[in-house]
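Hi all, posting the design record for the shared folder.

TITLE: backbone redesign
STEP: 1 of 1
STRUCTURE INPUT:
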């Protein structure tokens, strides 16, 4: 790829505990850390913005581990005169919209200053209720927050497989995934004794990141130089696809076969498309969820659930707010201005006998009724508490004041405070 084809990218690299800390001795793996530093600095010198999400502090006992880890990073990057900054986050830090925007602004300023941020969950302060759960999720939320181009989930395997490669020699690699929800893969690997997640958490992270428009890659951490190779390959492929599109020729598929390109691209382009080492690439959603919508879906922990009917769901899709008339039930104990899950349910009731008058006859049989299962469709910040919603559910918005004696709004949730997922494509992080 020539220099004129390059553009400055934002790249988030997530490193698991097993990638940087020895599982038995709990000592830092200096050889791997050094290669990671060299890779990050090289990407930075090429004009890219780099963020590292680093695990390993829990393995070294939280408070002591955080100090030791950042000191080590600072020493290694210092040899190459690359400034870094530590950013510690908990879910509480992004649950508030202002704090979320402050975190975004902090990342922006550091990257503009040429600094490489080192991100980790603040394990010394986090409790189970405000934890991200694993650094894979943290890295995905970070990538979405900065609107990254790439998220690399570095692990101890080359890529995703259709079977567990540790127990099945005939396992086949999965190199490109267009839709994580339709993926058929073995995720039985539970991760190392040092980590908080395995392959399953990486798929959750991939769902979150790709829903925000971030290309997500699973690759082996022992060769971090592959990050640059994968980026160059993907960017070259995008460039050729754009050329094909502008010349009205068929697009090259994501799973490109170099031999099939010989008639449509030059030998120089073919050379640029030399495949990098094995990895799995998750393609970004062409219609990403970003900014406030992403924050509503993934930055907030749900405090309860509101069950709505299909009419209310259609209204939300049409950009209308959530009225109490469309609410079927309430679960949980949430307060005003807290986040809740939105779950759509079928409210149709089958005729038990199948006859028009409901009476059983010798010749009538109960019809087959297709009752749709409940489906979580999004999140909302509510104007009323759970106790209040229980009292006004099923009513017109104009009747709220008559029941409660007051009315904050005719809507239980304003449309600007509702974010919907694409059913089947994305997941929601709790």
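Okay, here is what came back for every position:
SEQUENCE:
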């Amino acid at each position: 790829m020539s220099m004129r084809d390059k553009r400055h990218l934002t790249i988030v690299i997530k490193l698991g505990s097993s990638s940087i800390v020895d599982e038995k001795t709990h000592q830092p793996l200096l050889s791997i850390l050094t290669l990671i530093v060299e890779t990050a600095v090289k990407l930075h010198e090429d004009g890219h913005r780099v963020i590292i999400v680093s695990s390993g502090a829990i393995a070294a006992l939280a408070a002591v581990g955080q100090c030791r880890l950042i000191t080590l990073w600072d020493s290694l990057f210092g040899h190459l005169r690359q400034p870094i900054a530590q950013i510690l986050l908990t879910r509480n830090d992004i649950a508030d919209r202002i704090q979320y925007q402050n975190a975004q602004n902090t990342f922006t300023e550091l990257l503009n200053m040429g600094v490489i941020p080192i991100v980790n969950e603040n394990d010394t302060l986090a409790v189970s209720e405000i934890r991200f759960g694993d650094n894979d999720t943290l890295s995905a939320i970070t990538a979405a927050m900065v609107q990254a181009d790439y998220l690399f989930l570095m692990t101890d395997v080359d890529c995703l497989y259709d079977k567990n490669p540790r127990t099945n020699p005939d396992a086949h690699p999965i190199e490109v995934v267009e839709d994580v929800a339709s993926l058929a893969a073995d995720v039985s690997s539970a991760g190392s004794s040092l980590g908080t997640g395995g392959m399953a958490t990486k798929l959750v992270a991939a769902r979150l990141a790709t829903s925000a428009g971030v290309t997500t890659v699973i690759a082996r951490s022992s060769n971090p130089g592959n990050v640059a190779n994968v980026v160059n390959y993907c960017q070259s492929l995008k460039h050729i696809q754009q050329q094909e599109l502008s010349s009205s020729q068929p697009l090259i598929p994501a799973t490109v076969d170099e031999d099939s390109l010989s008639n449509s691209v030059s030998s120089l382009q073919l050379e640029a498309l030399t495949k990098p080492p094995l990895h799995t690439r998750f393609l970004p959603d062409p219609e990403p969820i970003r900014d406030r919508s992403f924050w509503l879906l993934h930055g907030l922990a749900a405090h309860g659930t509101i069950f709505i009917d299909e009419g209310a769901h259609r209204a939300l899709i049409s950009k209308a707010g959530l009225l109490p008339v469309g609410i079927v039930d309430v679960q949980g104990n949430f307060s005003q201005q807290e986040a809740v899950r939105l779950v759509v349910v079928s409210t149709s009731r089958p005729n038990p006998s199948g006859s028009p008058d409901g009476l059983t006859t010798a010749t009538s049989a109960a019809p087959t009724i297709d009752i749709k299962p409940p489906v979580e469709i999004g999140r909302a910040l509510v104007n009323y508490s759970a106790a209040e919603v229980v009292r006004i559910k099923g009513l017109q918005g104009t009747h709220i004041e008559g029941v409660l004696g007051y009315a904050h709004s005719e809507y239980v949730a304003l449309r600007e405070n509702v974010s919907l997922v694409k059913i089947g494509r994305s997941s929601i992080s709790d």
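COMMENT: Confidence is low (pLDDT under 50) at residues 1-5, 126-130, 190-197, 349-370.
Let me know if anyone wants the other runs.
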